[in-house]
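Notebook p. 47: complex prediction with zinc ion.
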Amino acid sequence: MSLTQFNHELFDFLKSATTPFHAVQYLTKLLVQAGYSELHEKDAWQTKPGKGYYCIRDNGTILIFKIASARKCETGWKMLAAHTDSPSLQIKPQPANTSNSYTQLGVEVYGGPILATWFDRDLGIAGRVTLLDQENTIRVKTIDFKRAVAMLPNLAIHLNREVNEKYSIKRQKHLHPLFCQIADETFSFHDVLQQQIEEEYPEISTKIVLGFDLFCYDTQEPELTGLNREFIAASRLDNLVSCFIGIKSMLQDATEGNCLLLCSNHEEIGSSSVSGAQGNFLHSVLTRLIPDATKRARMFSCSHFISMDNAHALHPNFIEKYDPQHLPLLNHGPVIKYNANQRYATTSRSAALFKSLCIAANVPVQEFVMQNDLACGSTIGPIVATSLGIQTVDVGIPSLAMHSIRESTGAKDPYMLSKVIDLFLSRPL
Ligand SMILES: [Zn+2]
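Predicted complex, structure tokens below:
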């Protein structure tokens, strides 16, 4: 596949995956087209060699796997992970408050967004709604307004003269997106949701909306930018890019051996949840595939895990924030992330596998370590390494403005990492 086609499909995914639930839905569509079968955790499973499967937990996490045709489950697996969630503003359960003709929405801060970037953007709302239908069945449906329905205007500089020098955003006071302007105070957010459900699902007759997990998102579409279109600017690059790279590699014809991809929700809030990577989902699925504990332990010991999450590229205006020997650049290839305190799971051993793949794929590779005066972030890699005891390497595309509403990376970077992951899944361990 050409770079242009790859980025075209990536942009399509970024546009559609406005929430973790929509990301999983999009991936599911690709898997069904490719002949993968869905497995439900409540059922007994009959898996066959040479076949591909996926299992979804709580709508926002998906585990995709392919069992080798000629080898047994207990031989080594090639494993990939990424996360489906991004920092956001999540709508509170009773969000609407109306005064001075404005109806505003109460939101909580989900994860660690750069809050200032959420002001003066055209915000859509999307997520998951639970409802009771006319047959008294509880249903779960995704909705997406697919247009700007909210905004968080900045205060004019004339009323806030210090905005460019010092200004702190008070989360409870300042984060109330404007949603609509109405004459009376009988407005019901739940009625608005019911209308949206009827629009998206005419076949469903809703009796009552019971609850929701809804998020604001930026409606601006991904763009190639820079004079020579050498950069990508988009929302949710962290970490939808890695989910996309993972699914493209899983769906290539030439996979070899047992492979899996975990696209997990709730990484941005620490991964502790029913569907987060600290939960039992991955272990539970592997236990069903390899029930014998000894065989499973043997499998873990000869498997390899590549955890993909974006890395910090050098920001040329803030060079003092970086270690001078470790300055990843956009369009210079994937980044291996190291931390002596194992906030990243990379070891020299696990890095060696990734470097050898880069050499074989003819893709340049970069290395990142946080400078010593700054605390290091973390990701799914150390969680998997700790809970399963599998050799794990943390890698990612170099990116700028991580956790801004609009992040950036190099136009070639997702494609280059994808070449390496393709090779990981297509050659013997
Ligand atoms: Zn991330």
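Notes: The chain has two domains: 3-86+235-426, 88-218. Residues 83, 238-239, 267, 309-310, 379 surround zinc ion (CB under 6 Å).
Next step: compare against the earlier run before touching the bench.
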